[in-house]
Amino acid sequence: TNGTGTVLDTLVIGGGQAGLAMGYFLKAQKRKFLILDASQRAGEAWRQRWDSLRVFTPAKYDGLPGAPFPADRLSFPTKDELADYLEWYAEEFELPVNHGVRVERLWREADRYVATANGHRWEARNVVVATGSTQTPEVPAFAAGLAPSVKQLHSSQYRNPQQLQAGPVLVVGLGNSGAEIGLEVSRTRPSLVAGKPTGEMPVKHGKTAARYAFPIVRFLGLHVLTLGTPIGRKVAPALKAHAEPLIRTKTKDLAAAGVRVVPRVAGVVDGMPVLADGTRLEVSSVIWCTGFREDFSWIDPALLDGGAMPRQWRGVALDCRGLFFLGQRFLYAEASDTLPGLSRDARYLAAKIPAPAVLGSAVAA
Ligand code: FAD
């Protein structure tokens, strides 16, 4: 039960932007629902990213359902502005969020789902898993072989260059995080970025791009590259597996700043990283910009497909009635894990969650 002995209509697990967008629609439908979130306050996932981070999506696309982002439509909010907006959003729409609750287990019992955390138990007819796809860092196993003298951080732990030691820095991974962090650390330390970009947005990032290029990018990400189109289905596995194309910081910016771009790191020899051609890099700090993996280890394997999402369409689990997913990478569209994409997916899910009355009669039958 949810502490009051009642069964909820819907339990949303995760109160980042995906969970809050979902909450907006559940509230509009007057459902009895609750959002459980591991962090201490709304917006924490953004607050804890590196200090200089700004979102790459213009403010006109950063609003959640029902409330445009309060800034110049062509500007790019800072990560703290986005966090403050999420906090405001949860209050403005009076969304019921229990913070500081990391769900430890989720399973199905007869006609309902049961979630447990901190010795408490919640029961619900429907569950939406909105725990984000950037919560669990991915670091290659060979990182463990680096000499203890090398300071190692994952991009999720990196805040600013003051955390680093004096001397050369290796940034591993040439996605957007790697490029942006590599450029930042190059202002105070010799820096190398290892990896191969998976393409670059062919326009300079800024207000002009926000006005003319982003509408096209948004259209492609929401409507063309989806699991509903042949091209989307074809490119989905590659887009899921690789980093996004470089958006703000391009390889020419790195070159201009004197950052050396080197091939992928193949392993560690005698405590230092080595490249595929055998070159050993003597560095004093390493920042792993190697991405994240989805972590569903807390969900009963019977509800999953070998640790991954079960068979689903646009977030609706096809073989588990009442189980939904929101915010995962390429859930339905290339944009599914971005602000515009997850708002649309939340609207779709809200319309698919069984109506309480129908469900009630099904249960009675
Ligand atoms: P999160 O914001 O990660 O929220 C998930 C929430 O679930 C967290 O509060 C977490 O504490 C909670 N949680 C996790 N596990 C549990 C559990 N077991 N029980 C309870 N709670 C749990 N997107 C854009 O649209 N524009 C951008 O410019 C942009 N820039 C990005 C920059 C970076 C560096 C990264 C990493 C991502 C960026 N994204 C961007 C992508 C995406 O919008 C964000 O990652 C966004 O935070 C995802 O929202 P979310 O709600 O799905 O997940």
Automatic annotation (TrEMBL):
<dbReference type="InterPro" id="IPR050982">
    <property type="entry name" value="Auxin_biosynth/cation_transpt"/>
</dbReference>
<dbReference type="Pfam" id="PF13738">
    <property type="entry name" value="Pyr_redox_3"/>
</dbReference>
<dbReference type="GO" id="GO:0004497">
    <property type="term" value="F:monooxygenase activity"/>
</dbReference>
<dbReference type="InterPro" id="IPR036188">
    <property type="entry name" value="FAD/NAD-bd_sf"/>
</dbReference>
<protein>
    <submittedName>
        <fullName>Flavoprotein involved in K+ transport</fullName>
    </submittedName>
</protein>
<keyword id="KW-0560">Oxidoreductase</keyword>
<dbReference type="GO" id="GO:0050660">
    <property type="term" value="F:flavin adenine dinucleotide binding"/>
</dbReference>
